[in-house]
Amino acid sequence: MPKLDTSSVCPLSGVDRRLEDVHQLWHQAEAAYFDPDGFRLAIQTAIQTLRTVTFVLQKQKVNIPNFDTWYVGWQRKLKAGPADGVDGQRQKPN
User: Fold this and answer.
1) How many CB atoms lie within 10 A of CB 46?
2) What pTM did the predictor assign?
3) What is the domain range of residue 74?
4) Structure confidence by residue, pLDDT tens digits, 18-52
5) Total number of domains constituting the chain
């Protein structure tokens, strides 16, 4: 079987697709806000879909130049958490 030529396929097309799915699920959750079961289902599915973005990025890292450097930087920022802010500085309570 001939190998599929993926040289013209964006390595992030799977990420784009999942983000489009999340956008749709977000609107479904918004529409179902006053229906607890419908809201729960839509928001949980949106969260699960967002988590797959990380997996797709990691799978494609060999096709993305300098991915590890970029990804480690973002991991550090996100691990800081909202209390520390994006710049890693602890925010003072109001």
Assistant:
1) 19
2) 0.64
3) 13-84
4) 999 999 999 999 999 999 999 999 999 999 999 99
5) 1
